[in-house]
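Team,

Forwarding the record for the chain on the shared tracking sheet. I've put the sequence and predicted structure together so nobody has to dig through attachments.
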Amino acid sequence: MSELDVKEYVESKFKVDIVKESRKRNVVYARAIYAKLCKEHLNSSYKQIGSTLNKKHETIMYYCKTLFNQIKEYEKEYYLVYLKFKDHKDSYTDNEYNILFDKYVRLQENFKNVDNRFNNILSEVPEDKLDIFYFRIKPIAKMLNSHFVNK
């Protein structure tokens, strides 16, 4: 989940461009919802959020601390969009999980293929050359292990 994902969510719900220069209430409220969501769900700094909206960090602080409370109190339809973001975020996270799980399954299959090929190569090494084979393969295995374990 990124600021761009949050921006797309907010703009799709309110049917506005939150970056466009406008002082219309619906656009300003949408920006405030966006700022609050980024602050709470992405832990973005006020400066980061401001840079995505071409606003100063002070404006973003106002959105998050003052204007959002007014929206919560008096503009229930806007506040509901804020509340429904959790469901949207959860479905997004579920989708991310499914993508990552598919990648994990493919990696397991690739590992099995590599393991099978390695065993085939090992079976072709003459018994009197196994010491040399292990001596040469050990640094390669160490390098691969450190590369993948440290990532």
